[in-house]
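Two proteins, back to back. First:
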Amino acid sequence: MNKCFYICVVVACLMLPGMAWADLVQNGGFETGDFSGWAITGACAGVGATTPGGCYGVDINPGPHTGNYAAYLGGTPNTLIAQTLMTTVGQEYTLNFFLAAPPFAALGGYDPNSFSVSWNGTALDTLTNLHADTYGGHTYSAIGTGSDILQFTTSSGPSYFLLDDVSVSSVPDGGVTFMLLGGALVGFETLRRKFRA
């Protein structure tokens, strides 16, 4: 019986790091081919493998960062996509996404454009007049409050922004969980031996 208990504890410890890295964003790669999981406002947005028809175009289309689809976000004046994430109060989270801002010469090239990312209405960053023919990775930290709103807002004159591979995951605790479980196991074994003697 003691051997079975220890095996169960070891298996539980090995499962903890995998749970700590679970992605909280639904459809962060837009692989459903639409904005499922996201709230959206603005008429100039679409999900596709190539530039959606409508408001804008791009001269250089990098396509999706990974997978088959990316979000194409224009903005006249703004396009907004948001998602509510269930988090743990006080837990630190890492937000990652990939962003491109290719030009469209027919409407003036790159500028003016603006892209912002916010967490519960607080701007984590605002990028203006971005010139990015290919994707660049962006990483930010945020603290969970239990229910948090991740929001991207664009204002793009001549072209689309391309957004892909959005993810939010908890930051590992640096081994504190393992140390606590290890200490509990040592304490349990010490008590077990004391009472057996």
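And the second protein:
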Amino acid sequence: MVKTEFHLAQFNMARARAPLTDPMLADFVDLLDEINALADRSPGFVWRLQSEAGNATDFEIGGDPQVIANMSVWESPDALFDYVYRSGHIRVLSRKKEWFERSDAPSMVLWWIPVGTVPTLEDGLARLAHLYQRSLLLTHRDGFRRFSVRSAWRGGAGHREPRATLPESLGKPPFRSPGRTAGVRRETLTMHRIACGPPPARRIAQAISMGQ
């Protein structure tokens, strides 16, 4: 039996509507330490990109100091989902439009990495660029539209990829109840199957069972 272990890496970036020193971003800056500490102690958290200041706002991308990147590693999609939507992080997510510019291009990407691997900023940028290029190919060549997290959770994704990809339109989850109801669990599993695909270990086991 082939055994492999993988974690889920996520990278996202967005351009702030003003410099971090601007009063418009004051609440966001004030929440950084709290939200990062929340991630550090969240179940399933493995690693996050940070400078000596304890966050990732010091990493300049493309020569634009208003572009802010975030990268982290989690044990599973469910662990990341719980942190994003079932913790105090939702306070930041709900105010994203106040602090960051809207973009039509994908700004978030997920991919599987072997346990113990530490992704680099260059890895995240390359994965995001690949997602953008592929989304253009699928849209113009194959007629598939780019899909949002909500449409992926609802089973409306236009294609399936072994690598997990979630575009910029990361919004509120497609349910109302804050509890772990059976319906919510089914939505989570749908997101895992379509947006993330099965972990590599499971794909290998499936290939072996099929005689491939």
